[in-house]
Write a structure and sequence with these properties.
- It contains nine helices and no strands.
- The chain is an all-alpha fold.
- Helix 3 packs parallel to helix 9, helix 5 packs antiparallel against helix 6 and helix 6 runs antiparallel to helix 7.
- It starts with a helix and ends with a helix.
- The mean pLDDT is 91.
Length: 248
């Protein structure tokens, strides 16, 4: 296969994902935030006093298209170096739509401490599609049925396991919310086909990064022990890093 073909495929997928991030995805995030603020102002969901929502209007600029585009391109370039450097260009093509959705979802969480289902849902569907593509690729390569179907069981088991563990953590004062639980289950579904250790490492890395940042903020007196931080961006960083190590 020509070395030009993988690059063209990756660039095509990148262009499509970048257009989605710049257009409908970032627009959805801004509309989601505005609706959330309106409901909070009216007291419709009892969140008017949440510090994250009081500060959200000042951080709304993070959801503007050019900021979203820049952040996604940074993530995509890092992912491209990992995948293309190892010759696994198809993994990059599969990962870019996921990273596009997670980039906007993480930015939204950073602004208002919410991970919208409208972004996590399509990401979960794409993660499931990646598993199906993996099964088809194994069958096309001449693998047996049991071997070809292995990614299905691995991904479902990782999603269920991580979802269950993080749900238990969310039920105690751990800083995790239901959006984070869904994100961890999504990480398992997406990365489980690489083996259970990959998604687990991604979640653990994300929690470690979040904890480290929280400690630094407390040392600098920019946060207190009871200050809530958005966990989503750190869990996403951990998931993407685990993906990069799996394909590198």
């Amino acid at each position: 296969m020509s070395s030009v073909f993988p690059v063209l495929v990756a660039l095509t997928v990148l262009a499509a994902c970048a257009a989605a991030v710049y257009g409908p995805a970032s627009r959805f995030a801004r509309e989601y935030l505005d609706a959330l603020l309106v409901d909070a102002l009216r007291g419709a969901d009892g969140t008017a006093e949440e510090p994250a929502l009081r500060a959200a209007p000042n951080r709304r600029a993070l959801l503007l298209p050019h900021w979203q585009m820049a952040l996604f391109l940074v993530v995509a370039c890092a992912a491209g170096c990992a995948a293309l450097g190892s010759g696994r260009w198809w993994e990059l093509s599969l990962a870019l739509p996921m990273m596009a959705a997670l980039t906007v979802a993480g930015s939204t969480d950073a602004v208002c401490h919410r991970l919208p289902n409208g972004l996590l849902g399509p990401a979960a569907l794409w993660a499931a599609a990646c598993v199906v593509i993996e099964v088809v690729a194994r069958l096309a390569a001449g693998g047996g049925l049991s071997q070809a179907l292995a990614p299905v069981g691995e991904s479902l088991a990782a999603a269920a396991g991580l979802g269950a563990v993080t749900l238990l953590l969310a039920l105690v004062p751990s800083g995790l919310g239901m959006g984070d639980v869904k994100l961890c289950a999504l990480t398992g579904l997406w990365l489980g086909r690489f083996g259970w250790a990959v998604p687990v490492a991604g979640v653990v890395a994300g929690l470690f990064i979040a904890g480290t940042v929280a400690i630094v903020l407390m040392v600098l007196r920019l946060a207190r022990r009871d200050t809530m931080i958005a966990m989503g961006p750190y869990l996403i960083v951990g998931a993407v890093a685990a993906w990069a190590l799996a394909v590198a």
